[in-house]
Amino acid sequence: MKDSCEPCELSATEALHRIAAGKLTSMAWVESCWDRIAAREPDVQAWSYLNPDAVTQTAARTDQRHGPSIPVGVKDIIDVCGMPTMMGTDFHDPVPVSREGGSVAIMREAGCLFMGKTVTTELGHRHPGPTRNPHNLAHTPGGSSSGSAAAVADFMVPLCLGTQTTASVIRPAAFCGIVGYKPTYGDFDKSGILANAPTMDTLGIMARTIDDVGLLRAILLEETPQAIADMALSDVKFGLLNVPPWNTAEPETRRVIEALADDLAGAGARQVDVAIGDQVTRLIELHRLISGYEFGRSIAYERTRHLDELSAVLREGRLADGREVDSRRYPDLIREAAFLRASLAKAFTGVDILVSPSAAGPAPASLESTGDAAFSAAWSLAGNPVITLPLFQATDTAMPIGCQLIAGFGEDEKLLNVSQAIMTRFQS
Amino acid sequence: MKDSCEPCELSATEALHRIAAGKLTSMAWVESCWDRIAAREPDVQAWSYLNPDAVTQTAARTDQRHGPSIPVGVKDIIDVCGMPTMMGTDFHDPVPVSREGGSVAIMREAGCLFMGKTVTTELGHRHPGPTRNPHNLAHTPGGSSSGSAAAVADFMVPLCLGTQTTASVIRPAAFCGIVGYKPTYGDFDKSGILANAPTMDTLGIMARTIDDVGLLRAILLEETPQAIADMALSDVKFGLLNVPPWNTAEPETRRVIEALADDLAGAGARQVDVAIGDQVTRLIELHRLISGYEFGRSIAYERTRHLDELSAVLREGRLADGREVDSRRYPDLIREAAFLRASLAKAFTGVDILVSPSAAGPAPASLESTGDAAFSAAWSLAGNPVITLPLFQATDTAMPIGCQLIAGFGEDEKLLNVSQAIMTRFQS
Question: Is the pTM of this model over 0.90?
Answer without folding.
Answer: yes
